[in-house]
Amino acid sequence: MEEDIDGDIEDIEALNYDDLDNVSKLQKSQRFTDIMQKVEAALQNGSDISNHGMVLEDDPEYQLIVDCNVLSVDIENEIVIIHNFIRDKYRLKFPELESLVHHPIDYARVVKKIGNEMDLTLVDLEGLLPSAIIMVVSVTASTTSGKPLPEDVLQKTIDACDRALALDAAKKKVLDFVESRMSYIAPNLSAIVGSAVAAKLMGTAGGLSALAKMPACNVQLLGAKKKNLAGFSTATSQFRVGYLEQTEIFQSTPPPLRMRACRLLAAKSTLAARVDSTRGDPSGTAGRSFREEIHKKIEKWQEPPPAKQPKPLPVPDSEPKKKRGGRRLRKMKERYAVTDMRKLANRMLFGVPEESSLGDGLGEGYGMLGQAGSGKLRVSVGQSKLAAKVAKRFKEKSYGSSGATSGLTSSLAFTPVQGIELSNPQAHAHQLGGGTQSTYFSETGTFSKIKKT
Amino acid sequence: MDEVLSSVAETIKNFAVIYLVDISEVPDFNTMYELYDPSTVMFFFRNKHIMIDLGTGNNNKINWALKDKQEFIDIVETVYRGARKGRGLVIAPKDYSTKYRY
């Protein structure tokens, strides 16, 4: 690829060059003219099917096809170089055009058509570009900051455009030739995607073995048009498909299934290309069986779902309800747990009559609630079990405060017998140690020490 | 009522089976169960007659034609649940005491 390297190096000094020939050498090269001559001759002769007997690599036609593939890649690179050249020259005249028209061949055609014209209403761009882009170009041209080019620069630019178009035509010829020979070179691949698309894929990849080495996701994207113009909506931009979009299989699938079909096509065509690159199946049967598989799969996707059978109800109460657990459920259950007030009201001291709501044993009994000696009339909202655990751990970290009680408790209790009673906050903590009361139901009680016998 | 029963039969086949009896052909139980209405539905679980409190006053049977399939399925399910627990009388999910007033 000497042309490429030279072209690259010279591109760096791009602003200094004046003549296209310094940059673009491919068209003048011997190799190019040789191959083009052979291609034209072969195109005129028609296909030769009689050389099936020969080993492929010795076949001069096969060699020509390999050369054609390499040449088509070279031509593409050359076109890019020429495009850069044209762009640099035309920038003085119409700088915004390069961001509006991306494709190098379209750009060359537009430049040739516009020439040195300042008023774009006199230029007819119909057929060269889509009408939306023509509109944008005309509008931008009316406000452009460019100035007309001098005559010699203009001439060079037009020459370069001609060169680019000639190269494009040459590439088309090469592709046509490869396509006509496609069923001989890569029968399996052309059985799946058709010879035109197969030729394009091979051309872009740079040869059959290069195509075979690519992963299927890359094959899917070969030839994909990228870059929407700035300001144009991306809602209409097609999904990522390349040359495969033109295959018959793709066109015949309904739009909702197209993405899946494209992936399937890319995968199978990569397999076929691999088979072809090793000449594993010269008759093309593998390709045809792949094609059958693809058709079958696409049909299966389009099948309607199986009809819904009415299901009989399950036996009631046969499946146990899924009980959930965890912290969230425990916290929710705490809201309905028995409160400390209710617990005190449920218990009674021995030998001490309880008070009741209607007095004299009538109405609801209050149990230990409000009894003298229990220390409290008002029972604060007790600590939940979780809070008790946390408080215990907090205490164990020995932060210094000993047995802090809730801030809502009042240390005053009014009792009917003794008047004001000051409650001893420590008494509650020591109720455990009394021994007269059972520790079985205590919330803050721990396990008693079990002595070894 | 027959259409309701036939359409429901497949759905509840896992826990209930429906038998259609022509009382003119099998008159043996007419006096025992007092079968005098045009349509009567009675529930039995393991050879025991299950009573349903429908609010109509007669707990032994449903002696009118139910129109709604889902209502009927609910009644059958309630009867099944209660009978499995050993209850002889279950309470129907819907009250039919006002069924003649629309």
From TrEMBL, chain A:
<dbReference type="InterPro" id="IPR019175">
    <property type="entry name" value="Prp31_C"/>
</dbReference>
<dbReference type="GO" id="GO:0071011">
    <property type="term" value="C:precatalytic spliceosome"/>
</dbReference>
<dbReference type="InterPro" id="IPR002687">
    <property type="entry name" value="Nop_dom"/>
</dbReference>
<dbReference type="InterPro" id="IPR027105">
    <property type="entry name" value="Prp31"/>
</dbReference>
<feature type="compositionally biased region" description="Pro residues">
    <location>
        <begin position="303"/>
        <end position="317"/>
    </location>
</feature>
<keyword id="KW-0507">mRNA processing</keyword>
<dbReference type="GO" id="GO:0005687">
    <property type="term" value="C:U4 snRNP"/>
</dbReference>
<dbReference type="InterPro" id="IPR042239">
    <property type="entry name" value="Nop_C"/>
</dbReference>
<keyword id="KW-0539">Nucleus</keyword>
<feature type="domain" description="Nop">
    <location>
        <begin position="185"/>
        <end position="303"/>
    </location>
</feature>
<feature type="region of interest" description="Disordered">
    <location>
        <begin position="298"/>
        <end position="329"/>
    </location>
</feature>
<comment type="similarity">
    <text>Belongs to the PRP31 family.</text>
</comment>
<dbReference type="Pfam" id="PF01798">
    <property type="entry name" value="Nop"/>
</dbReference>
<dbReference type="GO" id="GO:0000244">
    <property type="term" value="P:spliceosomal tri-snRNP complex assembly"/>
</dbReference>
<dbReference type="GO" id="GO:0003723">
    <property type="term" value="F:RNA binding"/>
</dbReference>
<dbReference type="InterPro" id="IPR036070">
    <property type="entry name" value="Nop_dom_sf"/>
</dbReference>
<dbReference type="Pfam" id="PF09785">
    <property type="entry name" value="Prp31_C"/>
</dbReference>
<dbReference type="InterPro" id="IPR012976">
    <property type="entry name" value="NOSIC"/>
</dbReference>
<dbReference type="GO" id="GO:0000398">
    <property type="term" value="P:mRNA splicing, via spliceosome"/>
</dbReference>
<dbReference type="GO" id="GO:0046540">
    <property type="term" value="C:U4/U6 x U5 tri-snRNP complex"/>
</dbReference>
<dbReference type="GO" id="GO:0097526">
    <property type="term" value="C:spliceosomal tri-snRNP complex"/>
</dbReference>
<keyword id="KW-0687">Ribonucleoprotein</keyword>
From TrEMBL, chain B:
<dbReference type="Pfam" id="PF02966">
    <property type="entry name" value="DIM1"/>
</dbReference>
<dbReference type="GO" id="GO:0000398">
    <property type="term" value="P:mRNA splicing, via spliceosome"/>
</dbReference>
<dbReference type="InterPro" id="IPR036249">
    <property type="entry name" value="Thioredoxin-like_sf"/>
</dbReference>
<dbReference type="InterPro" id="IPR004123">
    <property type="entry name" value="Dim1"/>
</dbReference>
<keyword id="KW-0539">Nucleus</keyword>
<keyword id="KW-0507">mRNA processing</keyword>
<comment type="similarity">
    <text>Belongs to the DIM1 family.</text>
</comment>
<keyword id="KW-0508">mRNA splicing</keyword>
<protein>
    <recommendedName>
        <fullName>Thioredoxin-like protein YLS8</fullName>
    </recommendedName>
</protein>
<dbReference type="GO" id="GO:0046540">
    <property type="term" value="C:U4/U6 x U5 tri-snRNP complex"/>
</dbReference>
